[in-house]
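**User:**
If convenient, please work through this fold.
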Amino acid sequence: MICSNEIIGGVEIQITKKKNLKNLYIRVNPPEGKVTISAPINYPDDEIKLFVLKKLPEINTIREKMTSQERQSKREYVSGESHYLWGRPYRLDVEIGAGSYEIVKMPNKILFRVPKGATRDNKEKYFNEWYRVELKRVLEGLIQKVEERMGISANEYRVKNMRTKWGTCNIDKRRVWINLQLAKKPIECLEYVLVHEMVHLLERNHTHRFNALVEEFYPTWKIAKRTLDNLPLDYLEKGE
């Protein structure tokens, strides 16, 4: 493996060449927009530079959006914090001294019972599992509705805490992944992401036909996407 840093078009690029790669991959990483490239070990440096220069307008657009979109501050899971569920903020009320972890959602607050000495990381882990249960509960009903509307289905639907994508679709295995963070967003955002990923089963790439199919199966997708784009992102450590 060979690693280097290059300035291309005014942007610092971290380049990693690996023996087991067949293609070149470029990624803009949150939260600070760091650009990384993975390439085959013998990929010519000049061709990497030309590729980056060609993609530079798109790279700069993504970096600008990434650095300008608001992010939540780091959650410490203490009383008084705001935590979102389905687009609504709830005040967190933490009770210390319980025999086990428990979360109770009330009309305007979330009661979080935790054992004495509970660490921040353990509280976050339990909270994320609660989000996972909430997401799967709502997702189950949405999947049935969307499958009937589209006339297709995936083989699997899974939930994963992703940092850079709201959802992904493995077309060959017909497997759809949904970001755990969508439990914090309005339900219409979850439905939009589900439809978007399932459309990949009909049209692999983001072509004009792809957008037309999304429009057909979820006519208000642009509103949902705009809502998703404008809401604060989850907190993310630099380099995470």
Notes: Residues 2-68 form one domain. The chain has two domains: 2-68, 120-230.
